[in-house]
Write a structure and sequence with these properties.
The protein is an all-alpha fold. The protein is built from 16 helices and no strands. Helix 2 runs parallel beside helix 5 and helix 4 packs antiparallel against helix 7. The relative contact order is 0.13.
């Protein structure tokens, strides 16, 4: 008994006296980081959700102006051109004048900040990206809102770090990544995709640790809850539930994936070429930059009148395509047309994303491919809509190189968590 007491006494003396206080301090630190992550998620969700509502408001107001009294003063086509050119001008001017880092999707800026090679000037990025994005997307240009929301979400993460005077570099990194996840989760009503986007697509920059992963999860879930409270819990894209395909037809899904894999490589190269082309045109001179952007926005105002399928982010186009409202030939023409319009808009440096236009491209070609397979092999009972859904995920995976994120994104956006029994 005496020996056991001596051993216990020696063991207790070997333990540092402040070990328990350090443990409690670390635990409190973890809780504080998670609490800040929740704040980041809520703010990112609010900004992303109201950004979507603001873009819809601008788009609807643009339509009201066209059908209202303005057409009594000038022809309809001229009014469409002037209104869209003016909206685009707002976006281009704010970006070039106040925050050049807000051009494009903004996701590379967040990745650079996670590598500590790019500053996050949240005080200018947030208003410029929000208002400039309203103008660019509201003009009818082929841009998505997910890029802006990811950048604004990351900016919110850095803002919270500065407001609460967070000095620890790992904590600041975690909050930045958490904001990016929250921005994507709220943009597409897809919390799992928002989490996986940071863990997979940003894997070279993300610092994997237990606390950082938990921060990303909490922020994405918090942002999505905010989105659902404001916008409801319905899926972003309404599509029918499809039966499981026959095993013999899986070969065609493999072929579709190979085609999109090759196209994804080409598409990424075309994006780089288009960006270089616009730089050669305006040479980053403000008057040439604004003139180029305004003319481009005005042209999309005209396109909106006569071929609306070639304008906008494309999320609204996906349900009509998947419901079989277009023939194979029209689908392929729209696919080629939207490739051009996507390259023009995104390459110009307008404040907008490219994920939504890519999902639309995947749907167009996927459904056209499904119609071709259905006509050639009627005995397989193939539903072309399944190829449309597969095409969305395939093109996203091929271009972004994040296959798991693409799968989760399509599942959550379309609410296709299951297939009905055959």
């Amino acid at each position: 008994m005496l020996v056991r007491e001596k051993f216990s006494h020696r063991l207790f003396n070997k333990i540092p006296k402040d070990s328990f206080s350090q443990f409690l301090a670390n635990d409190k630190l973890s809780l504080s980081i998670l609490f800040l992550s929740m704040i980041v998620g809520i703010l990112a969700g609010l900004i992303a959700t109201y950004f979507e509502l603001a873009v819809h408001f601008v788009s609807e107001s643009r339509t009201e102006w066209l059908v209202g009294s303005i057409t009594s003063l000038v022809p309809l086509w001229l009014a469409a051109f002037l209104i869209s050119a003016g909206l685009a001008l707002i976006g281009y001017y704010l970006v070039h004048r106040f925050a050049p880092e807000a051009a494009g999707s903004g996701i590379p800026e967040i990745e650079g900040a996670m590598d500590n090679i790019r500053p996050v000037r949240w005080w200018r990025v947030l208003p410029v990206k929000f208002i400039g994005g309203m103008g660019a997307l509201g003009s009818g240009m082929v841009l998505g809102r997910e890029g802006p929301t990811v950048q604004m979400g990351g900016a919110v993460g850095r803002m919270v770090s500065d407001v609460f005077r967070v000095k620890n570099d790992d904590t600041r990194h975690s909050l930045l990544a958490a904001g990016a996840a929250g921005g994507l989760a709220a943009a597409f009503n897809a919390p799992l995709a928002g989490i996986m986007f940071v863990l997979e697509e940003m894997r070279p920059q993300f610092r994997y640790s237990f606390i950082s992963v938990r921060s990303v999860i909490i922020a994405a879930v918090s942002a999505n809850i905010v989105y659902r409270v404001i916008n409801g819990q319905q899926a972003v894209i309404t599509l029918p539930q499809y039966s499981a395909p026959e095993l013999r037809s899986l070969l065609f899904f493999l072929l579709l994936g190979i085609l999109f894999g090759a196209f994804g490589v080409l598409f990424n190269k075309l994006i780089t070429l288009s960006q270089d082309l616009f730089v050669r045109i305006h040479h980053n001179l403000r008057h040439r930059y604004l003139l180029t952007g305004s003319l481009l926005g005005g042209c999309f105002g005209l396109t909106l009148l006569y071929i609306p399928e070639l304008t906008g982010g494309g999320i609204g186009l996906i349900p009509s395509v998947a419901m079989g409202e277009y023939t194979t030939g029209i689908l392929l023409l729209l696919f080629l047309g939207r490739i051009v319009t996507t390259l023009l808009c995104f390459g110009s440096g307008a404040p907008g994303g490219i994920f939504a236009p890519m999902l639309a491209l995947g749907t167009l070609f996927g459904y056209a491919f499904g119609l071709i397979v259905q006509s050639w092999f009627p005995e397989l009972n193939i539903e072309p809509g399944m190829f449309a859904i597969a095409g969305m995920g395939a093109l996203f995976a091929a271009t972004v190189r994040a296959p798991i994120t693409g799968i989760l994104l399509v599942i959550e956006m379309t609410n296709n968590y299951y297939t009905r029994s055959t």
